Amino acid sequence: MIFRFGIVCLALSLGTNAFTVRINYPQLTKFDVSKDIFGYSEDANLNARELIRKYGYRGETHKVITHDDYILEMHRITGPNSNPNPENKTAILLMHGLLSSSVDWIISGPQKALAYMLADEGYDVWLGNARGNRYSRSHKILSVLDKQFWQFSWNEIGVYDLPAMIDYILDNTGSQKIFYAAHSQGTTAFFVMCSTKPEYNDKIIAMSALAPVAYIGHMTSPFFQILARLAPMIETGMNLLGMYEFQPTEKFMKYLKTMICDPEAWSQPICENAIFLVAGFGSDQMNSTLLPAILGHIPAGSSTKQFFHYSQIIKSSNVKDVEILAEQLPNVHAKIKVPHPTFGHLDYIWGIHANELLYEKILDIMNFFSQK
Questions:
Q1: Which of the chain's ends, N or C, has fewer CB atoms near its CB within 10 Å?
Q2: Are 31 and 258 in contact (CB under 8 A)?
Q3: What residue stretch is flagged as signal peptide (predicted)?
Q4: Residue 218 in contact with residue 314, Cβ under 8 Å?
Q5: Does residue 184 have an active-site annotation?
Q6: What's the whole-model pTM score?
Q7: Phi/psi of residue 11, nearest 5 degrees
Q8: In Å, how far from its chain's centre is CA 70?
Q9: For the segment 92-119, what is each residue's pLDDT rounded down to a tens digit?
Q10: Catalytic-labelled residue, pool 183, 309, 340, 345
Q11: Is 345 a catalytic site residue?
């Protein structure tokens, strides 16, 4: 959905998130955690700036300090190397979802990833990173080892992180307004910002909300449905253990991926769908050849409070999620249903045909407002 106050474009899928797995049960084998079961992908080991440079674009790294002293890293794409750097380009801030990072918007590569498509169209592209992910793990006073560092949810991302990044972009570009596009949690934080700091409505030309999350009573994620029921007990236990960050270690993730995805393991058919445990099941848009690169960048880290905050919404919501959101937002310009029956939550950023099914429509709407 795109609305203008911003104008928001709210994009939602038509799919039912159905999920079917056919499982054979061969003899269980020992798992070798040292082998690379997915095949080597250089992109899995490159950071955001290295990926931008590899695919022929001009990139920059910027540090932003929030009002409560978190230090956030932003990545900027000023265009492809093949073209001169035009002046007076309109800026757009892209914001990732839960457990993700700025890499979401570039991992699919040129002509596929939204950030590159925007840069090719002449936009000044800024990629945000929320506090606590792999690029934004610094604070002027606190360490990531301090409990207080992790005492935040997506509410603080909306109250502190987004305003700091938006103001930084405006100060550095001399612009008065920018575009904003976000996936999942990035939309939640935006709605928090605009409701708690209404002056930021005047700083946004138009906002594109991909798989917006405000009401999630109908979310199909098994992880969040279980979390909603067990949240108080889990939160108490994690606090007692001093676990405030959701960031599985590299060794643990490698072991988990090997255990589930070993070619001879009975659970192998579930492998590709493991990352859908949080986002919800079902899609034919997952690019299996891209999966090794994706798994090199998720989970990117978050506070455990971000999960528990969403679980509270699940327990308190009994309305149709996107429809009620669209009814409550002012200045809605478009509510776009992705014309693909099984288009899922993660397809908005990694879908094989996301560029054709969705991104081109977003570009058309942005170009329309750029000309006004």
A1: C
A2: yes
A3: 1-18
A4: no
A5: yes
A6: 0.75
A7: -105, 130
A8: 19
A9: 999 998 878 999 999 999 999 999 999 9
A10: 345
A11: yes
